[in-house]
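Human:
Class, as today's exercise, you are to examine the entry below, and be ready to discuss the fold:
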Amino acid sequence: MRALGIDLGSKRIGVAVSDRSGTIASPLTVLQRSGSRRVDYERIAALVAEEEAEMVVVGLPLNMNGTLGPAARAAMDETRMLSTVVDVPVETHDERRTTVTADAVLIERKMRAPARRKVIDKVAAAVMLQHWLDGRAAQR
C-alpha cells in the first residue's frame, strides 16, 4: 500500500511518500502554508492523486507522556477536515521526537542549519511515516 505521510506545521507542511510495497518512506516535498486550509488540503489531495497514494497518515504531536495537548488537538481537527477533501482514508500516527530524529540525521550528514530548515519538515514526515509502516509490518 502506497501511503503519504504528512507533518502539519503552522508555516510548512512536510510530505513523505512510501514505495508501492509500503515498506520504505522517503521525503517528498515541503508545502508552504498558503493561509487557507482549504487550499493547503487541495494541494495535499493533488499529491495523493499524483503519487497514487491509498492512505494518508498525519503526524499526531502527542505530549511526551502520551496525552493530547493543544497541538495534538489541532492536528486531529485538521485531520478531520483533510479527510473531507482527499479520496482515501486518513489516519493519525504518533510523531513524538520525529523532528529531533530528522535533525540528528541531517546534522550527521553535515548539513548546515539554513539547508536543514528547508528540508526538516519532509524528513520528519518520512521518519513518522516509516514508524507507521514498520508498525503495520509488525502487525502482520
Remarks:
- The chain is about 50% helix and 25% strand.
